Amino acid sequence: MANEGARVFREAWTAGVRKHFPGEPKPSYVTPWEETPEWEREAAGAVYEQVRHFLDLSGGHASRLSREQKSRFVATCWTAQMYKHFEDPKPGYVADWPDLPDWQKETDSDIFEAVESSLK
């Protein structure tokens, strides 16, 4: 299930980048699953599980959060994973939500909603 959840996350990320990124995204942003680094697969699976638990613990009512709240939750969970996987992560990996580009905020909202959809 963790691998399946990680794929849901990664596919939502890639689709969101393709939809929201202005211009041509960096190749690493849209790397196919098969080429995604192991640390990134693990982080994606962990964030998927955090969103799943959050929805479960709220009795499904977390689906009523605004897109901004959903995005903030995903971004915070991802930041924690960056600290887990990197001793000294790049500043862009751990930027606070207000400092993220709009395309990334929208993509994070899409990820939350993709996790929701995968549970139905």
Give a quick precis of the structure.
The protein has helices at residues 2-20, 38-57, 67-85, 102-118.
Report on this structure:
The protein is mainly alpha-helical and 120 residues long. The protein has one domain (2-19, 37-118). Helix content is 62%, strand content 0%. It has four helices and no strands. It has helices spanning 2-20, 38-57, 67-85, 102-118. Helix 1 packs across helix 2 (38-57), helix 2 (38-57) crosses helix 4 and helix 3 (67-85) packs across helix 4 (102-118). It is globular, with a radius of gyration of 13 Å. The model has no long low-confidence stretch (mean pLDDT 95).
Topology of this protein?
Elements: H1 2-20, H2 38-57, H3 67-85, H4 102-118
Helix pairs in contact: 1-2, 1-4, 2-3, 2-4, 3-4
Order of helices and strands: HHHH
Task: Specify the biggest β-sheet.
Answer: none
Average predicted confidence as pLDDT: 95
The strand count comes to 0
Tally of contiguous helical segments: 4
Form type: globular
